[in-house]
Amino acid sequence: MPFTPRDLLYRTYERRLESVVRHGPIPEHVGVILDGNRRWARAMGYADEAEGHRQGAHKIDELLSWCAELQIPVVTLWLLSTENLERDPAEVRELLEVIEEKVSALARNERWHVRALGTLELLPERTRQVLEEATEASMGREGLLLNVAVGYGGRQEIADATKTLLESYAEEGLELGEAAKRITPDEIARYLYTAGLPDPDLIIRTSGEVRLSGFLLWQSAHSEFYFCDPYWPDFRRIDFLRAVREYQQRHRRFGR
Fold first, then answer.
1. What's the confidence (pLDDT) of residue 143?
2. Rounded to two decimals, what is the model's pTM?
3. 234 classed as catalytic
């Protein structure tokens, strides 16, 4: 099929945008809230809203290829929140099946090191097993580190980190007052799901929603945010490049 003038203009703009982005600072860690799958399915006329989740899962491959092109070393995708688990059981089951299939496929790709983040004990046994197997199968690989946040909530992560920290102090035999004196932001960060990883430089959310909804609540204190209108299945490479370009154009003060 021949290119239309609109296609040619789009490709020309995309190449120019990519050239600009490649000459600027590249984020070390990008977080993405993959929002709008169900609304996309409704807008496209699908009777089965799970089709939105399936199309959204396909889009993940494209996103990761774009990140690999820019040599972004860490990517975190929010696939399922703790609140999502409270939806209609049939809908949750369909979504979990999509996630299980996608995460298994990603773990088979030698380019990605997959790591699961979240309160995994809240998930069904099968889903938990798939996530654990994907993490184990891809452990030690070089290349992009892909965090898949499933059954994830930012407040729950901070609560879990604090609980584990206090349990470690109890094992040392510390009294409550002494333990309290040792609690610092750096101490808590050691017990977060993302311990040892750089905080996200850039967080992208699709679908026009302008909020984080608790995604990487602790880690995003100094992140740059990019909100865009397309539903996740419609997210394009040009949208991704625009997000990175906007990140590059911001003056990051890190609270100073």
1. 83
2. 0.94
3. no
